[in-house]
Design a protein that fits this description.
Pfam families: Uma2. Keywords: Endonuclease, Hydrolase, Nuclease. This is Uma2 family endonuclease. One of its GO terms (molecular function) is endonuclease activity. This protein is of the alpha+beta class and 191 residues long. It has a single domain, classed as Alpha-Beta Complex (tt1808, chain A). It has four helices and 14 strands. The strands form four sheets. The chain has a six-stranded mixed beta sheet with strand order 4-7-9-10-11-12, sandwiched between helices. A three-stranded antiparallel beta sheet has the order 1-3-2, with helices on one face. Strand 10 and strand 11 form a beta hairpin. The longest helix is centred in the N-terminal third of the chain and has 17 residues.
Length: 191
């Protein structure tokens, strides 16, 4: 279950900050901060991790040399009140530090799980949009599908593509790559 809370933060101390996250326990959960509110998600399951692995491999194999592909947990920071950890991210090589990405990635990808789906499709999508992330992909590993959102001229996400099952998605942004949702499960479609 995804929990949005600031319970661990002393009452009356104001919103949490990125510095507050440094003191969080290494408990196998993902700790993110959106507008000063702590968001805690459980460790992902098998299907989720399989999609992350195969997607990151496909992106890494196709990426141009000026971009980098990383998987969670790797922090994307914006100011002191936002720290996100996309399941997969693509960023400009020059923007990375050894510990984080203090600039918007060019692509953020979230893989849905029962405990994070509503959060990924709403809260995190809105946060990535506010950060100016040009492309946001959401992948459903249960009914394998990829939904693609891109920023329009007004800075708002619009769904520009969706591929399911054996359909292919021919991405042009942030670089050309062909993806087939069924293949992101590595042949594990049962259960």
């Amino acid at each position: 279950m995804t929990v949005m809370t600031d319970i661990e933060h002393p009452p009356g101390a104001g919103p949490m900050t990125v510095r507050d996250l440094e003191g969080m326990p290494e408990d196998g959960r993902r700790h993110e901060l959106i507008d000063g509110v702590l968001v805690v998600s459980p460790a992902p399951g098998f299907r989720h991790q399989k999609v992350v692995l195969l997607l990151s491999f496909a992106l890494e194999s196709a990426r141009p040399p000026d971009l980098e592909v990383l998987t969670a947990p790797f922090a994307v920071h914006s100011g002191d009140s936002v720290e996100l950890q996309p399941d997969v991210l693509v960023g400009r090589a020059e923007d990375f530090t050894d510990t984080d990405l203090p600039a918007p990635p060019v692509l953020a990808v979230e893989v849905l799980s029962p405990s994070t789906a509503i959060h990924d499709l709403n809260t995190k999508k809105a946060a990535y949009e506010r950060l100016g992330v040009p492309s946001y992909w959401v992948i459903d590993p249960v009914a394998p599908a990829i939904t693609v959102f891109e920023v329009d001229s007004d800075g708002c996400y619009q769904q520009v593509a969706k591929a399911a099952g054996a359909e292919s998605y021919e991405a042009l942004r942030p670089f050309p790559v062909r993806l087939v949702p069924d293949e992101l499960l590595g042949g594990r479609l049962a259960g």
